[in-house]
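Thread: adenosine-5'-diphosphate complex, take 2
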Amino acid sequence: MPSSVMPTSSMGDGDPSPVAVSTVGLRKSYGDKPVLDGIDLRIPAGSVFALLGPNGAGKTTVVKILSTLITADAGSGEIRVGGHDLAADPQAVRAAIGVTGQFSAVDGLITGEENMLLMADLHHLSNSEGRRVAAELLERFDLVEAAKKPASTYSGGMKRRLDIAMTLVGNPRIIFLDEPTTGLDPRSRHNMWGIIRELVSDGVTVFLTTQYLEEADELADRIAVLNDGRIAAEGSAEELKRIVPGGHVRLRFTDPAAYQSAASALREATRDDEALALQIPSGGTQRELRSILDWLDSAGIEADELTVHTPDLDDVFFALTGGTDPQPGRSSLPSQPKEAVR
Ligand SMILES: Nc1ncnc2c1ncn2[C@@H]1O[C@H](COP(=O)(O)OP(=O)(O)O)[C@@H](O)[C@H]1O
Ligand SMILES: [Mg+2]
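Output below.
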């Protein structure tokens, strides 16, 4: 082959980056209830992809289909995982992937080490190779001390770590993590984030499902929001934040009379009577801020506090999934004032 001929990707559409996972029009119904109603995915190798959605959105169903545990409905388009056609060669797909389910595969009756050795057996590693790999992974996931104890005595975070260690025995290039941090305390969650980042730095593709916007924001190169059986939006966290008009300037008053007169002058502002605060929709650009400040000056309004809020993933999520306006008093992710002017 002449050296000028570049190898083409399996997708053959001009994008040279290798694709780890792709689906076209993926569908799945249970009885007459459609769960997935035409999902298109294209996940570049070596990236972290987050499938974000509330409970019951169909995240686990996607993971189960992509990891060959259940089949997609007839009429779905081609599914490719790790360069293999999933329908034609499920064995090859299974060899390329690792799956950590939402419900742990850890056997509590045996020790952590025995769980690891069982996995090594399943992957047909020799005795000595199995022991070597198990010891290495137990060390890497900080489980050496616990290795000889029954896994039922492990904390939630330890069980998840063992679960991932077991997944890595087969040295998969693509890993599915179905809600890896649900139910973990904040410290174990941060610990798990570190583990996931480390996997990616080894070149592994991570397909992650989560209900947490913050987690997707922290970890994922690309995020898809699953709602009503469809991908409601897909992009980087930054791209997603740009599609919602969640930005605003918030003016807060301490004097109720000043608040009232500002509220009646600023008719387009949203009122928060309890907090004595007004929200003015704004993209937060210098020009917009200047015009708001000029306007306040000319109206003789002096707020006690002025903060600029840029949209965050909560705004995106609520806008896309048709929830009510998360402001104010929402719980999952406080909106961070990016910049405050006094
Ligand atoms: N085996 C099943 N039989 C019938 N309905 C199911 C089955 N598995 C999942 N579902 C339904 O499919 C929907 C999506 O479930 P799931 O993929 O587990 O969502 P998620 O993982 O996002 O919480 C839910 O409404 C669930 O009740
Ligand atoms: Mg699930």
